[in-house]
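Translate structure to sequence.
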């Protein structure tokens, strides 16, 4: 069996780090080693001990003095929006109608979907992101393109065909029946194939009829181990329109609740303006609120109250995400930098260990995949990011005065981007250095 032995400063989390002094929350090896075999981590710890377990033929890659962390996880992103990102001047509903829906119509063309899926996963690898939960377009072929590309790269990704049957251009509308049939066919073909996972993906209550949300609930009952992803409580106009479309509902969350869409694998993008009742309902069902800081700022949607949600007596499970193309950057480092500022505007702080916990183990726990990815634990998949906190002249200069690990992580979050990602390993294989140099 081929073995790869990585050497560098290894960092992995055991649980939420309460403060920068909470050293029991993580494991850090100044001279660490990771032995990779068969796509998994076969040994981890001090380099000398790990090296002693490696066979004679092991390929050694010395990444010192860089940091080795579990690959980043992006819990909510729209792969068909690569040519929507950086569209000027609108809030959510206008932004969807003016930029996003027209762009997504192009994905009726399978060849276009394949090209963008390839470039999207290239970009993820470039940014050190090894797992995403992705929205495809309404077209079945867009999800086929995404899964085929992801499977070929042996990446662990979650994705789903968007279900949407109203309040959108005709070319982007399916029907309750066709969305059920297409989703079911995709589930049967892709869910559990290699590392691929399927998420039932009704876009949001505005673009789904009651009959379609019924179908989404039926899919979740038929395939209970699937994820479900949608949008919730992002923007005031969206909330008001949802109230008009579902007049019987107590609130926005109640719409999804009514159709059986809450639960431990349910991922709700945004969740900015929740009432206490809604937050209680999400908490009690184990549902996940996905924090999308760059998108929430860019579309002027509002400030997600991360610390309040976390500390309430019925706490929310929280994930973080780019939400590209509403989001403005593919980098999870840039995303957490903006997240830190949003949390600061709510009068709180997020310590650097907590940030990196969130990007790795925290997001893996929120997606219920922490037994497979998100740590450097032995037996888990070898998805790893190699980070250089001195990647640019300005970072190198700041590193002269950044003594502690916490300071170096905060510097990486504040100044870092894809230039700080030296290598990305996907299932034990170097993937970033294998990328083509030019976009085609
Ligand atoms: N709500 C429904 N669809 C979308 C989308 O594509 N992006 C964002 N940010 N919100 C949405
Ligand atoms: Zn979104």
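Result:
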């Amino acid at each position: 069996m081929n073995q790869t032995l990585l050497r560098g400063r290894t960092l992995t989390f055991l649980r939420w780090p309460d403060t920068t002094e909470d050293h029991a929350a993580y494991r850090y090896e100044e001279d660490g080693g990771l032995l990779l075999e068969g796509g998994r981590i076969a040994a981890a710890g001090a380099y000398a001990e790990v090296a002693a377990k490696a066979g004679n033929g092991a390929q050694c890659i010395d990444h010192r003095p860089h940091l080795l962390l579990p690959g980043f996880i992006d819990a909510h992103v729209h792969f068909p929006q690569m040519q929507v990102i950086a569209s000027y001047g609108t809030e959510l509903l206008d932004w969807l109608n003016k930029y996003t829906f027209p762009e997504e119509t192009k994905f009726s063309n399978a060849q276009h979907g394949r090209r963008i899926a390839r470039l999207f996963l290239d970009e993820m690898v470039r940014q050190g992101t090894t797992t995403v939960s992705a929205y495809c377009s309404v077209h079945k072929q867009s999800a086929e393109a995404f899964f085929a590309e992801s499977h070929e790269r042996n990446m662990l990704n979650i994705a789903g065909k968007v279900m949407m049957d109203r309040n959108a251009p005709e070319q982007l509308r399916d029907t309750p029946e066709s969305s059920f049939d297409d989703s079911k066919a995709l589930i049967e073909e892709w869910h559990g194939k290699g590392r691929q996972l399927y998420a039932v993906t009704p876009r949001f209550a505005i673009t789904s009829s009651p009959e379609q949300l019924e179908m989404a609930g039926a899919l979740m009952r038929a395939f209970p181990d699937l994820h479900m992803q949608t949008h919730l409580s992002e923007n005031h106009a969206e909330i008001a329109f949802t109230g008009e479309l579902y007049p019987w509902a107590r609130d926005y969350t109640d719409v999804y609740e009514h159709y059986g869409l809450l639960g431990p694998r349910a991922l709700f993008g945004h969740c900015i303006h929740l009432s206490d009742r809604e937050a209680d309902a999400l908490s009690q069902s184990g549902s996940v609120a996905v924090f999308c800081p760059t998108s929430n700022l860019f579309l002027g949607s509002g400030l997600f109250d991360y610390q309040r949600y976390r500390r309430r007596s019925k706490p929310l499970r929280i994930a973080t995400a780019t939400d590209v193309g509403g989001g403005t950057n593919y980098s999870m480092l840039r995303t957490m930098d903006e997240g830190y500022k949003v949390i600061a505007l709510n009068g709180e702080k997020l310590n650097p260990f907590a940030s990196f916990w969130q990007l790795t183990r925290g997001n893996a726990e929120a997606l219920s995949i922490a037994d497979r990815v998100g740590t450097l634990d032995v037996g888990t998949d070898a998805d790893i990011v190699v980070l250089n906190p001195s990647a640019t002249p300005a970072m190198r200069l700041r590193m002269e005065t950044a003594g502690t690990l916490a300071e170096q992580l905060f510097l990486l979050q504040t100044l870092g981007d894809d230039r700080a990602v030296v290598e990305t390993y996907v299932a034990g294989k170097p993937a970033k250095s294998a990328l083509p140099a030019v976009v085609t």
